[in-house]
Amino acid sequence: RYAMRFVNRITELRRLEALLNLFRAGEWDNTCHLAVLGLRRTGKTSLLKYFLDHVVDREIMHTVYLDVSKIANSPRDFARSMVLAALQSATRSRNEELMDLALRTGSHDLVRAADRFQRVTLQSGDNETMFHAAFTVFKELGDRKWVVVLDEFQDILALERFRGIRSIDALFRAHVQEVDNVFFLLSGSYPTLMEDWLSDEKKYLFSHFSILHLSELTREASFKLLTSRLGRLPNDIKLDFYTHTYGNPYLLTVFAREYRLRERPVRDIFREQVFDSSGVIYNYYSYLLDESLKRARGEGVLKETLKVMSLADQPVTAPEISRALGKSLEEVHSALKELIRVDLVYCRERKYFFRVVPFRYFLRYRYLGLEQYEYERNAYLQSQVTKLLEAYNRTASELGRTKEFELHYAVTRAQGNALWGTRIPVFREIEKNVETEGGEVDLLAVTRRGKRWVFEVKWRNKACGVREVRKLLAKTDADRYVLLSRRGFTPQAQEAFAGEKRIVLVDLQEHAE
User: Fold this and answer.
1) Closest residue by Cα to residue 433 from 393, 396, 467
2) What's the start-to-end Cα distance of the chain, in Å?
């Protein structure tokens, strides 16, 4: 049913369709909206546009698609663009005259609202009023349901620099709560920043949006994408594509196009695209770096940290970076935290990795002047890809981060009630991804009396054993350990810890909905 271009996105489309069916049936409230998060060029926009064009029935619903990065120049631009897009959708017209479009709807109330919007609101200079007016059409044409996609939603924060707008998420939340005929779909290219924003219980948008992570493609899906672009290829060539792109759909598409134009080794395409300033990927990585550093604090030390990471043949620790730079560990940790926040790097078991692995070679060449033979001599890309990417794609990127968010959400909502057969106390503090003396834990919560609860989720295809439980116990001292496993626990683990009241083993198969 779904087009071949959406290789490995069937699951995501089905989830979108399931939410749409609930929305159509009225089994809906203002906590059912969705945010699609993923690094740039992982196919978020294509997925959402395909959903609007091929899944949403436009005979019974209106649809709006807006790229927020292009309309968040000012509250005035944002408001006019929203009203125009909604009127064009309602009338199925490309006309850009607001009053002409409003008249076509046949709604006298909307005509009056559009007239006031154009003559008074847009001329007033009242930025908050203009932002509120952006949602006029959805309210006036409330007899029809709307699906509204706001792509690159993180860029809406730029509106906070305008006088009178103190909190964008507070203003936007007001409309999320007020218009029950709109299904909002957000996308964000900075998943860590967006997830922190949407899952922070201190923020206004907390609990209104569930999150769908879009990651790189698995090896099998990468092979299917290549076949759809190039036809049948020998497995060794497809594996070469996968090795050099790490399953990034954008890189795969660019490399496939270059291969189709002039058949040559993928290695040569990689060298041309990543090291040559005229290459598409070189320019994409330049843009990625510049945009990410704009959102981060402390550009100088961030670039120095990236240089150290790009030079190392293996993932590095914070103390190793500290020694290489001659800077304090505190300063390095602060820099790494910023790089994680803008999704250039991630941390696993106290080591730091590039989120987009080929980006490392781009940095070596652009900032360090290292010649291409450095890439050819280095075996890291070739030797690590198959085992590292599969583990990363199937856990940390594709499912792990999503499940950690769901764990935080579930525990936060369940305080004072039973969850997974265990009473969850009221916590005064709940923190995700906490670095302890023995390693990182998914969730650390502290009760009002100072009791420490540690939560960890194992999302893999085999049962957890005694070793996994003991590894969690060794990470930090706690009063209660809650270990959740997608595939349950081995009989040995169940027997070994059956009498331990402070250890709770949760088989998620038994608690599946």
Assistant:
1) 396
2) 27
CA distances, 357 to each of 183, 295, 362, 401, 402 (Å): 35, 21, 10, 18, 21
The contacts of residue 33 (CB under 8 Å, 6+ apart) are 176, 183, 184, 185, 186, 208, 209, 210
* Nearest alpha-carbon partner for 343 in 190, 152, 199: 190
Strands of 273-340, DSSP E: none
Instruction: Report residue 462 as tokens.
Output: 């085999």
Question: What secondary structure, in 3-state letters, does 203-260 show?
Answer: CCCCCCEEEEECCCCCHHHHHHHHHHHHCCCCHHHHHHHHHHHCCCHHHHHHHHHHHH
pLDDT in tens, the chain (513 residues): 444 355 567 888 888 999 999 999 888 777 789 999 998 888 899 899 999 999 999 999 999 999 999 999 999 999 999 999 999 999 999 999 999 999 999 999 999 999 999 999 999 989 999 999 999 999 999 889 999 999 999 999 999 999 999 899 999 999 999 888 999 999 999 999 998 898 888 888 888 998 998 888 888 888 989 998 999 999 999 999 998 888 888 999 999 999 999 899 998 899 888 888 888 999 999 999 999 998 888 878 999 999 899 888 788 999 999 999 999 999 999 999 999 999 999 998 899 999 888 888 888 877 655 444 344 444 444 444 444 444 444 444 444 445 666 777 788 878 888 888 899 999 988 888 787 878 888 899 999 889 999 999 987 778 899 999 999 999 999 999 999 998 899 999 999 998 899 999 999 888 764
Q: How far apart are CA 101 and CA 83, in angstroms?
A: 10
Contact 34/16 with Cβ under 8 angstroms?
Answer: yes
Q: Which of 241, 263, 260 is nearest to 252 (CA)?
A: 241
Q: Is 246 left (phi over 0), alpha (psi -120 to 50) or beta?
A: left
Cβ atoms of 344 and 354 closer than 8 Å: yes
How far apart are alpha carbons 115 and 295 in whole angstroms?
A: 38
CB 490 within 8 A of CB 499: no
Q: The whole model's pTM is what?
A: 0.71
Distance (Å, whole) CA 26 – CA 503 = 41
Report the C-alpha gap between 414 and 372 in whole angstroms: 54
CA–CA distance, 356 with 343 (Å, rounded to integer): 9
How do the residues of the chain divide into helix, strand and coil, expressed in percent and rounded to 5? 55, 15, 30
DSSP SS3 for 147: strand
